[in-house]
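As a warm-up, study this chain.
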Amino acid sequence: MSSYLTIESLTKKSSLKKVTLVLSVATALVTLSSTAKNQEYDNMHKQLNIMNDILRTSLDSLKLSKRHKVRSVQSTYLKGQGVVFTIDSGSSMQWRSEGFSFVMPTMPPVPIAPGSDNNHVREIEIVAENFEEEMELFEQEREGVRELREQQRDIAYKLRDVERDKRDIEYQIRLGKDKSALKEEMKLLAKEQATLKKSKDSLDAKAKKIAKEQKQQKSKKAKQRATYFQKINTTLVETLCLYGNGLKALPKSEYVNLIIKSGGDKNGRGYQDNMIILNKKDISQCAIDKISAKDLLSKASRYQF
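Now compare it with the structure written out below.
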């Protein structure tokens, strides 16, 4: 009986060791898999941070003025899809048209940074300065146009009063009242009317000039804007051609997605975002000079949203 228990006990111990061994191996495999994935994402984070800096440095050279510049480049990774770079090209109010049609500037979003540093503080200051300048220009232009319209309205009222007085005098003349005095008064009214019409013509000419300048400014800004965003697109693609192979953690079957904020066509009071989707394989081909940056851009999927 005791021999039987001893054998049974040994058998159970042996089975327990096997189960323990299997569990240990399984746990080790899960741990290794988890560690490998964490390492994969850690590498992706590092490479994206480096690429953010490279893209931002390349785009900084496109600054037309302190009011027209790329504000930030942010990135993330979508597993199975690829990396996404979001380029904040600046508020759409930077491209608003000057003239009679005014849209109240809206405060652009304050840049968000994971930590507080001098560069981030300066970026916030620039946003505030730009907005303050926009508000000053808006108030000056609105005040100038309001004054012009008030002058035109006042002259229109005075001309209407003169016309009414002339009709009243003509009526009195027909009634046979003192014609000499009435005719003298009519001459004064005609003189005042001529002066008012001259002022009216001058203000109308000024209004037409402003409208013409507005149209020219609108056309000029549209051309500047088109050139600016074309340069952004070209610079992004050229930079990826040079440094895109640095995204080694990105699988070859996935994509580099570029979102250029407000980089598309006008939509209401703002602009649509411009989307450019590049295949990692095509970027690699460009990096080894198999295709040009122009070819890479032509191969991209593009749309606005």
